[in-house]
Design goal:
- By secondary structure, the chain is α+β, with helices and mostly antiparallel strands.
- The chain is built from three helices and three strands; from the N terminus they run ββαααβ.
- The protein has a domain of 49 residues: Arc Repressor Mutant, subunit A (Orthogonal Bundle).
- Helices cover 45% and strands 13% of the residues.
- The protein starts with 17 loop residues before the first strand and ends with a strand.
Length: 92
């Protein structure tokens, strides 16, 4: 049995928002879920310029966890941009 997921501190409320290519109806797009902890890690590291270690302290997780979260978030975001998918921000 895997370890239970540790609670991650996220300052913003991101759920319920979506980003999609223009002029294409949402029902015609592939949807990619971007979880709140992924958005928070992107915000802390890429927008505010924190190191992964600082972001980990702010989120209440280890630096390694932040690194895994960032890798996932960046891959999803890049794929959505390149392939014209919708990014749906959801709670984890």
């Amino acid at each position: 049995m895997p370890r239970p997921k540790k609670k991650r501190c996220c300052k913003g409320t991101f759920a319920g928002k979506a980003f999609k290519p223009t002029q294409i109806p949402m029902d015609e797009l592939t949807k990619t879920n971007l979880f709140d902890d992924e958005v928070e890690a992107l915000r802390l590291c890429d927008v505010e310029g924190h190191t992964q270690e600082q972001a980990g302290r702010l989120m209440g997780v280890s630096r390694g966890t932040v690194q895994r979260i960032l890798t996932s978030a960046r891959k999803k975001t890049a794929s959505a941009i390149v392939h014209g998918e919708a990014l749906i921000l959801t709670d984890s």
